[in-house]
Amino acid sequence: MKFNKLSILLILCFIIGSNYAQKLNGTIYEYDKNGKMIPLESASVYWLGTTIGCISNQNGKFSLERSNTSNMLVIRYVGYQTDTLNIKPE
């Protein structure tokens, strides 16, 4: 199902450890037509302006190395509008 705007949620997004942590873990969901959250498989997740990225697994989960140069997290999925989130360090 396609929506006019990217209808995903990035939740459980946290940095493990201290300010020097190097991993960002999270889960990407989309809302179905009934408003139920469903994990979004194969979404691209990457730091804006870098080559650091990954793809969400079948449960919508991802684990991504932190970037020293960007705090803007981009989420892309075919058929949806791309979304960018500002991830602030802890």
Describe the fold and architecture.
- There is one protein chain.
- The chain is mainly beta and 90 residues long.
- Helix content is 0%, strand content 46%.
- The protein contains no helices and eight strands.
- It has strands spanning 8-15, 23-31, 37-39, 44-47, 53-55, 61-65, 72-76, 83-86.
- The strands form two sheets. Strands 1, 2, 3 and 6 form a four-stranded antiparallel beta sheet that branches. Strands 5-4-7-8 form a four-stranded antiparallel beta sheet, with no helix packed on it.
- The chain starts with 7 loop residues before the first strand and ends with a strand.
- Residues 1-20 have low confidence and may be disordered.
